[in-house]
Every structure is written in C-alpha cells, then in structure tokens.
Design goal:
Elements (H helix, E strand, L loop, with lengths): L1 E3 L15 E4 L8 H11 L2 E7 L13 E7 L1 E6 L5 E6 L3 E4 L5 E6 L4 E7 L13 H9 L14
Antiparallel strand pairs: 1-2, 2-7, 3-9, 4-7, 4-9, 5-6, 5-8
C-alpha cells in the first residue's frame, strides 16, 4: 500500500490528518466489481454505486471514500490542481479521506469503479474552495472502524 499525505491546493483542502491510500492489484477475480463490493462491505464500507470519476476537481466534506477499479484504466489527479497524478488499472483501489480532491484526467472507454463509504457516512460533492465551515465538516468526519481493503484498524 502506498500512502500520500497531501497539503491544501488551490482551494481544495485535502485531509490534514489522514493520507490517501493506494492499493495495487487487490483482486484479479473475474467479477472484480462484485469482489470489491463484497470486500468493502465486509470491512464496514457500504458500496453505493458503479461508474467513473468526474472530470472536474471535487472533494467530499462529509465522508471518506474508497474506489475500487474493476475495469479499464485511468489517470487521476489526486489533491486538486497541481496535485499528484496517478494511474489506476483494473484491480487497484484508492481510499480518499474526506476533503481529498480528485479528478479523472483521462480514461479508457471501459474504465469503471465501485464507490463505497463508511457505514453511516453520507457523501456530498464539493467543487468550491474550502471555507471555515467546510474545513470544520471535514475535521468532524469520524475515522472509519476498519481499512476498506485490508480490514485492519484504521
């Protein structure tokens, strides 16, 4: 697992305490989508959708998020404008703490992910620069009980 600690970037707050977690080659199950959904659910993260990643910078101020890439490949910018550029491919997963900016730069036609959130956390989509109220919401998001991929303590 790779960890990325990101500072604020051009209005995107990122998380001041938690690093992004990048997991490579998590599953090679032929039905990766279902495998990710089962894994995340078993670790207390509720799978909520299957789709891609928005092509604009955004973040969530009310929930942590885990993304499981089940098809294709993409280049993502993590951390807002000027952030880290990473490539993900089918089988990879990415845990984004509340406040972490993310955007899809380019993707294969078949790129698809599962999105999941810790049980009890409702996500929002924020595109505006963070103000004090947004930073307070991010700081108030509770730590998940377990890592969404490994199931270990968070």
């Amino acid at each position: 697992m790779q960890r990325l600690m990101l500072g604020p970037s051009d209005g995107v707050p990122n998380n001041p305490v938690l690093p992004v977690r990048l997991y490579r080659a998590v599953t090679d199950d032929p039905d990766r989508a279902s495998a990710f959904e089962a894994m995340f659910a078993a670790h207390g993260w509720s799978p909520e959708w299957r789709d891609g990643v928005f092509d604009y910078h955004h973040y969530h101020s009310t929930a942590h998020e885990v993304l499981g890439c089940f098809a294709g490949q993409a280049t993502l910018t993590i951390g807002g404008p000027g952030g880290e550029t990473i490539d993900v491919t089918a089988g990879d997963a990415l845990m984004l703490p509340a406040g972490t900016g993310h955007r899809c730069e380019r993707a294969s036609d078949d790129f698809a992910i599962v999105g999941a959130y810790p049980a009890g956390q409702d996500w929002d989509v924020v595109t505006k620069p963070a103000d004090d109220a947004i930073r307070a919401r991010i700081a108030a998001v509770p730590l998940p009980a377990r890592d969404p991929v490994t199931g270990g303590d968070f």
